[in-house]
Amino acid sequence: MSEENIKDSEVDIVIGALQADLSSFLNEWRPIISRFHLIIVQDPDLKDELNIPEGFDLDVYTKSDIDRIVGSSGSAFFSGYSCRYFGYLISRKKYIISIDDDCFPAKDNMGNSIDAVAQHITNLTTPATPFFFNTLYDPFREGADFVRGYPFSLRSGVTSAISCGLWLNLADYDAPTQALKSQLRNSRYVDAVITVPARALMPVSGINIAFDREAVGPTLFPALKLAQEGNFRWETMEDIWSGMCAKVVCDHLGLGVKSGLPYVWRKERGSAIDSLRKEWEGVKLMEEVVPFFQSVRLPQTATTAEDCVVEIAKTVKEQLGRVDPVFSRAAEAMVEWVKLWKIGSGSPLVFR
Amino acid sequence: MSEENIKDSEVDIVIGALQADLSSFLNEWRPIISRFHLIIVQDPDLKDELNIPEGFDLDVYTKSDIDRIVGSSGSAFFSGYSCRYFGYLISRKKYIISIDDDCFPAKDNMGNSIDAVAQHITNLTTPATPFFFNTLYDPFREGADFVRGYPFSLRSGVTSAISCGLWLNLADYDAPTQALKSQLRNSRYVDAVITVPARALMPVSGINIAFDREAVGPTLFPALKLAQEGNFRWETMEDIWSGMCAKVVCDHLGLGVKSGLPYVWRKERGSAIDSLRKEWEGVKLMEEVVPFFQSVRLPQTATTAEDCVVEIAKTVKEQLGRVDPVFSRAAEAMVEWVKLWKIGSGSPLVFR
């Protein structure tokens, strides 16, 4: 497997538009993304018309498209940062790459511009190694290999399903951390890609992510909505929650999750201190969420991502539902998502 | 916890001397290690007298010391790369740092000389985070923190017990890899320290390692001896085997294992092709070793590293003993090691 095998036509770049003026965003990304098809989904709460520069192959979806395709509940489902998930649903491509609209191409330690799309595709098209940790990181990178002691039977690895990229400048901290350390910026470029080991959980950030839509598309959804959720990343939990589901599903199905390169440059936006009041809800929920996902086990009969999500939703309802109603609503949204996903993949006409 | 709390007198630097002339090795390391106490253990198979430059605070142990202290079987136990373990046994310090005598101080990406000792001490004296993966790597490094979604209850971390450093130039590959890719050198300096997640196994290399001797000293021993073991790293398995034990014990006791910085510069030595015939034994054994350690579970009654090693030895004998006699011998050596360790810590007079 190598990235040469991937055609540009197998990739959709999905952008959730939380701001109307996408001109500087798209112009800065132009050299990297212009050869791919773009799906732009406008936040249904955003009233202004989008400003999109010429020269891209793209489809734009707005509130009326969402309502038409998934019904009138769609706008609530796909509001705010969750609008991008509509793009995941509507895409028919094997791979999806999604980057927040406040991120720009970053530079590596040598000052070279990073092609985040190429790196994500490399991550997804080279094997992952979740069953044994390679101390020299990704053994499939040029100049690297498996170290002494790595079992030969595990060296072919498994299919990579998710590639989680990182952030320079404003990192993906929560509001309390950002408020407490308002000067904290990430300037450390770590030149590595790691397979997150099987059974190790992680906070998957939706800021800069790519995945194999055919393999794990149904596991990435907007289900956990905080009561006071706003339009700053540190006010959301939807990506963290679905990322936990996605990791558990990948472990169950024998698929790999990678973290590390590529970096994007994340711009400043909003005040963490203003968000503190809202964020605590999400922070508190994680104390329940992590032990739950550490203990959840999927039955052998769950052989697809859809099956797995339905099974997890059932257990969420049973075990977490009594802790907080936000979890019952998440479980219902997960079941709803799988229904939408199945309709979408069964009847392409409905969705295009 | 921070490195300021560690006195130099709490650290022993243990060097296994596989070559008689240590002058260039010690002189290159002088600025970094001269303020610490050194334990130099001469490979009992090495007949020449050691050449050691002036100006170090050190104790040297030779074949006759080993035989006197652990009995006449000692020389076989501690031959070749295993000689360093005699230093682990004889030390009375809390922390041990051990680096192969063919390694030299490396430089980082900015061309600055790396203080491997300081980095190991930082790794050991800042907490580890084995129960949830932090995508921005070590959250205790300057300029880093826990990312959004990281549960606050896990942010205090656990005590770090083992710090595994890496290698620039000649990396720690096995003989087949080194022979097949004879030009392969590691030039990628990855500026990161990672806690290897709980329940994830890894190949611990003894080339550049540090550990909390009081917490996990009994888990690092020379037990798995290959029939054709020689004096090249790629011909040995003793560190990989004891590293698997150590990781399982750390997971059981709630201690952390870190991997990454510091790097050392590893010099060329020997021919991998000549070693190929020997190495295959070790390579084949890993196919049994990894599934074994992935399945081994320790009883709640095992509350110290000594207890854990004895329990693992019992299971090795039962389950792996029938696969290959090398494993039965390893199990016996592990029990023997714990006995030596207990004698040593109970009666310091015997050992000094």
From TrEMBL, chains A, B:
Any one GO molecular-function label of the UniProt entry: UDP-arabinopyranose mutase activity
Site for Required for activity, residues: 148, 155
Reactions it catalyzes: UDP-beta-L-arabinofuranose = UDP-beta-L-arabinopyranose
Keywords: Cell wall biogenesis/degradation, Glycoprotein, Golgi apparatus
Pfam families: RGP
Location relative to the cell: Golgi apparatus
Gene Ontology terms describing biological process: cell wall organization; plant-type cell wall organization or biogenesis; UDP-L-arabinose metabolic process
Glycosylated residues in this chain: 148
Record protein name field: UDP-arabinopyranose mutase
Gene Ontology cellular-component terms listed: cytosol; Golgi apparatus; plasmodesma
UniProt xrefs under InterPro entries: RGP, RGP_fam
Role played: Probable UDP-L-arabinose mutase involved in the biosynthesis of cell wall non-cellulosic polysaccharides.
PANTHER family xref list: UDP-ARABINOPYRANOSE MUTASE 5-RELATED, UDP-ARABINOSE MUTASE
Family: Belongs to the RGP family.
EC number(s) given by UniProt: 5.4.99.30
EC category: isomerase
